[in-house]
Design a protein that fits this description.
8-stranded mixed sheet, alpha/beta
């Protein structure tokens, strides 16, 4: 395997209103390639979720997969009120500046898609092609409740097997097909803590999530979506409780008039560990 198909780990210094923090990111492909694909993960995930997709696309792109603040190897922010999209957008703008490119293609899962949609909606945006993975301008209240029910927990697992069983239980909607995939997911989800394991994120993100989720109603951001002008693909897990089919269809008719694809047998959200899911993204991103 060529060197460019192996990941490289880096950090970039970002600012918040209360100080500085490092964002960690994994980079795949030729570091001199001006074509950059930025892959941004979901609420309680890490950038290593995209390993399979990044490896598959590293011959075409410099693929960059950050850990959002408070996740993975990135720093935690002392005040959890800053775990919100405006801070994430600012961090990603700093990261893009570090990459020294004028434009990027963007793939965002769930929260990563919200961040991408917000950035793509701005004048002078660097986002020139956008993939929204199982998220849109209407986020269903029932999905927000389901996520909030486990997000506030901070379990300590005495061994890896028990941790993996927990991750599998709360992530069945990902639709993974093999035990090897579940093991890979668990490795990317956990951090050692003494003799055991904890989830690889700051439990305080739950406080900000409650602010963003609001009072038990759908979160609606159509003005952001309608302001997006770049070519857009929306992928939905056919069993998703976060992005419903009606919203998906509406996204094909307004704003950027997205191309839409549904992945059978998957809920929230497709994880791009299968060749057929990767092909959906590759075909859209590489079309002329």
């Amino acid at each position: 395997m060529s060197q460019t198909r192996e990941p490289r780990e880096h950090r970039v210094l970002c600012a918040s209103p209360i100080g500085l923090h490092h964002i960690a990111y994994t980079e795949w492909g030729d570091a001199a390639n001006p074509r950059v694909l930025l892959c941004v993960h979901g609420l309680a995930r890490t950038g290593r979720d995209f390993d399979d997709l990044a490896r598959a696309l590293s011959d075409h792109y410099r693929v960059v997969c950050p850990d959002l603040a408070g996740r993975g190897k990135s720093d935690w922010i002392a005040d959890p009120r800053h775990y919100l999209p405006p801070q994430y957008v600012a961090d990603m703008v700093t990261l893009i500046a570090r990459l020294n490119v004028e434009e990027v293609h963007w793939l965002g899962t769930s929260l990563g898609g919200v961040i991408g949609m917000a950035l793509a909606s701005l004048p002078k945006t660097p986002v020139t092609r956008l993939v929204l993975n199982d998220v849109g301008p209407v986020v269903k209240a029932e999905a927000l409740k389901r996520i909030g029910d486990y997000l506030g927990m901070d379990p300590l697992f005495e061994n890896f097997d028990k941790a993996q069983a927990y991750i599998k239980a709360i992530s069945q909607s990902f639709g993974l097909k093999t035990e090897a995939q579940w093991t890979q997911l668990a490795r990317n989800s956990l951090r050692p803590d003494g003799s055991g394991f904890r989830m690889h994120y700051d439990p305080s993100i739950a406080a900000a999530f409650k602010i963003a989720a609001g009072p038990g109603t759908d979160v609606v951001t159509w003005p952001l979506y309608d302001a997006v002008r770049c070519p857009t693909l929306v992928i939905r897990g056919a069993q998703s409780d976060l992005l419903d089919h009606a919203t998906l269809e509406e996204m094909s008719r307004r704003g950027p008039k997205a191309r839409i694809v549904e992945i059978p047998g998957v809920g929230h959200a497709p994880m791009f560990m299968d060749a057929d899911q990767i092909a959906v993204v590759r075909d859209f991103l590489l079309q002329t």
